[in-house]
Automatic annotation (TrEMBL):
Domain of life: Bacteria
Protein name, per record: Uncharacterized protein
Length: 75
């Protein structure tokens, strides 16, 4: 069973906390993005395909809040 949006919100909250830690530990984009993408990809894989556009938008807003330049997913 795929997580519902309430569970996804909780996972996003955890990812948001992790972004702060990742930025401190890996301030360069070349170090940050692979580590972040691994976490975000895992969340996307666990989500319902119908939630993925919503989830992508929420992740983008999260990154913007942290001042991260670039976008997820990275192609």
């Amino acid at each position: 069973m795929k997580p519902n949006r309430l569970r996804l919100e909780r996972s996003l909250d955890e990812l948001d906390i992790e972004v702060s830690s990742l930025l401190q530990a890996h301030p360069s984009a070349t170090e940050f993005w692979p580590r972040f993408a691994e976490l975000a990809d895992e969340l996307m894989q666990r989500s319902d395909p119908l939630d993925q556009d919503w989830l992508t938008a929420r992740i983008g807003a999260m990154l913007s809040t942290h001042g991260v330049q670039g976008c997820y997913p990275m192609f």
